[in-house]
Structures are given as structure tokens and as C-alpha cells.
Design brief:
two-stranded parallel ribbon; five-stranded parallel beta sheet; 7 strands; globular; single chain
């Protein structure tokens, strides 16, 4: 008798429910809903892709023709709209449904792919591709790969290698290109090889002011902080003012603002506390911690001082 006993394979799923139960994809979708506020059109597109993969798997289990779908994607939108987070969840979905071996995400930019001298680009690009095989390669600001104004630029070499791998290794690698919508459009026009290989184009809308406020409270809650009512109102004003300034990056800018508010809170407690500090005081962001931001510098002092202090 052989020393190794064969372990019976799990019976092929025959229903959508069985596929979801075996793959636990529903858990990933639930995590996506919890992790990201809003973005309903994006979440629906991810669900659509997941549904396609589930049905494709069922067809294969029933012996029906099921060609592997093209899964390369383009994520367009402004910074801080959750593109990297969605890419991570997409990698998990692909892995759990058996469309990728490892389910990991490798996030890179132009500098990770393009060399600075002859003979440098190919090994850099191939090394990144080697790390990404079996998972998802996420290329942020992908349009920087192509710089036609620079005749000595080596980005075109990286593009040619990427295109070849996207076609020949489509069963073992999913590539997601990301960046601003208008720049990505120009990039695809200049590189039709990419457009023909991208099956799913997903646009990430900016967050509304209300969604950004909810994101703020969620971020703080995960760190054990809370806003007073006055601080919440001050933060709502901050969001409206900050959105009108240059270089606003949605949730990314809000995270930076909250980090600075926590810094001010710590400084306030350090300078003013004369006795023991309780958990509530250590965990509370006051209105003054928000209103000290330079964003309010253009607001008249009287208006600034009249904000609730809670």
C-alpha cells in the first residue's frame, strides 16, 4: 500500500451558491463594501466581473465551452479615490476563483520599470513582471511610461515588453493601468496595443463632501479617536475649503488632514494638561484641532472664531 493516500477532490460546484461558498468571494466583496465609502458604480462593476468569473467557472464545471476571459483593466480617476484598494480586492477575487495562482498585488510606477541608460530597462521590467506573475501588476500613472517628447527615453522598451507579456501570459498575469482619465485617454491613443488588450475600463468618481466626512470618522474610529460635534462641523467646513484648493487628493488629503489634527491635539494636551489625562480626553479631537489648519487662513477671523468649539 502506498504511504501517501489520495485526498478526494472537492466536488465541482454546480450552483452559484456553491461557487461562492467554495471560493469565499462574497467575503471579499463584503470587505470591499466595508473598506470603501461610496463608489457604488465601481463596486457594481467589480461585482459584474466577479459574476462573469463565477458563471464562467460553472460552465467549465459542467463541461461547457469556457474560454478564459481577458481580465486586464484600466482604473481612471483622481488620486485618493480607492484605485489601489480595489486592485487589491480584485487580486483576491481572482485568486479565490482560481484565475490567479498567488493572488498578490505588485504596485509600481514608471521608475520601477524604466531604466536610465541603454540595457537597463529590459531587466528592470522583466524583474517586476517576474514578481507579479501569478497575481496582479498595478501600474500607477501608467501614461508616464510614454514620453514621445524625449527621443532618448526608454519607456517604449518597457511598453513593448509589457504588451508581449499581457498577450502571451494572460492566463498568469492581470495588468491594471491607473491614472487620470484624460491622460489615460491620450496614452491609449498613442499606444493602441494597450487599448486592445484592456477589457475593463472602470472610472472612479470623486467622493462627495458627505462621503469624505464619513471616511474621516471611519479613519479616526480605526485609530481609537472621535470628533466632537464642533470638530465634525469644522471638518465639514475644512473639506469644502480644501476641495477648492490645488492638489486635492480625496481620501488621501483627508488622511493627511487627520494626521495633522491628531498632531495638534497631542500638542494641545502636552501644553495644557496639568493632571492625569483620561481616555476620553486622549481620544477626542476638538474643533480647535481642526480650525488651526492653514486652510482656514483665508476665512475672516470673526467667522473662524464663531465656529462651535464643543
Amino acid at each position: 500500500m502506498s504511504a501517501v493516500q489520495a485526498i478526494p477532490d472537492t466536488a465541482p460546484a454546480r450552483t452559484v451558491g456553491e461557487v461562492l461558498a467554495q471560493s469565499q468571494v462574497a467575503e471579499v466583496m463584503d470587505e470591499l463594501d466595508r473598506d470603501l465609502i461610496g463608489l457604488l458604480p465601481v463596486k457594481q462593476r467589480i461585482r459584474d466581473i466577479a459574476a462573469l468569473l463565477v458563471i464562467d467557472k460553472l460552465r467549465a464545471n459542467l463541461g461547457l465551452q469556457a474560454n478564459s476571459p481577458s481580465l486586464h483593466m484600466s482604473f481612471t480617476g483622481n488620486p485618493g479615490t480607492g484605485k489601489t484598494t480595489v486592485a487589491m480586492r480584485m487580486a483576491q477575487i481572482l485568486h479565490r476563483l482560481g484565475y490567479s495562482r498567488r493572488g498578490h498585488l505588485v504596485a509600481v510606477t514608471r521608475d520601477d520599470l524604466v531604466g536610465q541608460y541603454i540595457g537597463h530597462t529590459a531587466p528592470k521590467t522583466k524583474e517586476v513582471l517576474k514578481k507579479a506573475m501569478g497575481g496582479v501588476l498595478f501600474i500607477d500613472e501608467a501614461y508616464y511610461l510614454y514620453r514621445p517628447e524625449n527621443e532618448r527615453d526608454y519607456g517604449q522598451e518597457a511598453i513593448e515588453i509589457l504588451l508581449q507579456v499581457m498577450e502571451n501570459n494572460r492566463d498568469d498575469l492581470v495588468v491594471i493601468l491607473a491614472g487620470y482619465a484624460d491622460r489615460m485617454d491620450r496614452f491609449f491613443q498613442s499606444n493602441p496595443g494597450f487599448r486592445s488588450r484592456i477589457a475593463h475600463h472602470i472610472d472612479f468618481p470623486d467622493y462627495s463632501d458627505g462621503e469624505l466626512l464619513t471616511i474621516s470618522e471611519t479613519m479616526l474610529g480605526k485609530q481609537g479617536y472621535r470628533l466632537t460635534e464642533g470638530a465634525r462641523e469644522a471638518l465639514a467646513r475644512y473639506v469644502a475649503l480644501r476641495r477648492a484648493q490645488p492638489h486635492f487628493a480625496n481620501a488621501r488629503s483627508i488622511r493627511n488632514a487627520l494626521d495633522r489634527a491628531r498632531l495638534r491635539q497631542a500638542n494641545r494636551l502636552f501644553e495644557t494638561a496639568t493632571g492625569p489625562l483620561d481616555a476620553e480626553g486622549l481620544s477626542t479631537i476638538e474643533a480647535q484641532d481642526v480650525l488651526a489648519s492653514r486652510v482656514f487662513s483665508g476665512v475672516p477671523d470673526g467667522q473662524r472664531a464663531s465656529a462651535p468649539t464643543a
